[in-house]
Amino acid sequence: xxxxxxxxxxxxxxxxxxxxxxxxxxxxxxxxxxxxxxxxxxxxxxxxxxxxxxxxxxxxxxxxxxxxxxxxxxxxxxxxxxxxxxxxxxxxxxxxxxxxxxxxxxxxxxxxxxxxxxxxxxxxxxxxxxxxxxxxxxxxxxxxxxxxxxxxxxxxxxxxxxxxxxxxxxxxxxxxxxxxxxxxxxxxxxxxxxxxxxxxxxxxxxxxxxxxxxxxxxxxxxxx
Length: 224
Description:
Oligomer: single chain
Strand content: 15-25%
CATH class of the largest domain: Alpha Beta
Low-confidence stretches: 1-8
């Protein structure tokens, strides 16, 4: 592909996304007006609710696709990993009481903090989509273990319990990102892979035993 073609595509993509989001906004706005006109007892209100839910889901897909395709150069700052994960958890579930029992950290720091140099925004995206992935494939998080493995490396391990509705969660990470269902789960996992790659880390997905699975994210501590 020529340099000219690449420039056209880079300009085209955000323009198309903007057009789609504007159209979805119009549909969502129309559905809201219908909702007000019909009233809560009208049987057609169920269809309006489905339209509104569809608009929200499509908007989320567009945002995630934009995240995946956009090129981002990390702006490295010292971040506290537990805080990043806690914030991502709250964005998904609002409350973090359950997380207190699930997350453990192993650190030599007197306050128990595990720190690294990373882009705070991209790290937030990474762990938001890592947690979201576990929910989309219908697994239960049994434990989140954060370990400072060495002076250079940190590992975050999600111990997962596969439910009867979790589908086929087998194969390596490359196979998973191309085959797991639903498609939203593949998109979330692809974003995780991209965020980790931008920070020169590694991701693996393994079977522990029976219905248990392990999602492991290894990150470099880095430097400013």
